[in-house]
Amino acid sequence: MTQPNVERNAMSEEQITQVLTGIANGFRNQLRSPILLIPADENLEFEDVTFSSQDGVPLEAWFIPKEGSDRLIIVNHLKGFNRYGLPSHLEPWKSMFSASGNDFEVNFIPDYKILHDAGYNVLTYDLRNHGHSSAGNGGIGSSGRFESRDVIGSLIYAKTRRELSGMTIGLFSQCLGCNSTIFAMSRHPEHLKDVHVRCLVGVQPLSPRFFLERQLDLIGVPADRIEELDRYIKLITSFDLHQLAPIQAAKSVTLPTLVYQVYDDVMTKPIDVQTIFDNMPARDKELFWVQGTTQRWDGYTYFQREPKVALDWFEKYMY
What we know:
The structure is a single chain. The chain is α/β, with parallel strands linked by helices. It has a single domain (13-317), classed as 3-Layer(aba) Sandwich (Rossmann fold). Helices cover 35% and strands 17% of the residues. It is built from 13 helices and ten strands. The strands form two sheets. It has an eight-stranded mixed sheet, with helices on both faces. A two-stranded antiparallel ribbon has the order 4-5. Strand 1 (47-52) and strand 2 form a beta hairpin. Helix 1 (13-25) runs parallel beside helix 8 and helix 4 (148-160) crosses helix 5. The radius of gyration is 19 Å and the shape is globular. The protein starts with 12 loop residues before the first helix and ends with a helix. Residues 1-6 have low confidence and may be disordered.
């Protein structure tokens, strides 16, 4: 695992303004990534399904059945990705993430194979404004506030589809998907306190301010310009960076929760995840640090390298 190769060049005021407005515009015009692989590529039988989010946005999904199992894992992906993952070994994504060393493919299909072979049905879907799912809220990304309605929609789907309605549910939520799950618990706890929803594995939840501060640093923009970026983002989303963070919403997380995070992740700071975790009042919770890398993507692929940590958590609570 290599350290990112970061080059710092002095930037003109015009260039800095272009960077700031470009980042802010990414909250309005999110770049969708293609779905390059499907579960059949890991010899998994699956069904293309669609369901509605809580506010009616059509969401596209895969249901991967496990014969004889009454346990279901719902997977919530991260920003810019989709249910397949992200082809960040290809352009334009390679250039977008090369400064942080995250210019390699993330493929989630092996995750589904591991979960399936461990005895779980899997429901994985594209969040609004991602993959093949429909646009919502004019395409605006909200770091989990609007996207929480998709998490709730997936739970309603699981509870109302006949063959899934009695299953024990675990949530496997990554970054934006984890933020969305946390906001869902804050906004509509009744859906998460259902007797069938047993636990959460949350991978690298993130407050946008920490990510954007690190992004500016990697690009070479002075740190004090974060307040200007905050204003640009509010003009587009109507939310400031404080409102987009899951830190306060985390105070509503009561499910047994395992959180894991790359400790030396160059795209954020450990204090962010530590604060989110500390705010969770869940009686049963654990924070696990992934060591030996600075690459955030290694956190997203950790499960397929070392599945025992998450599988043990699911097994403990999904009885």
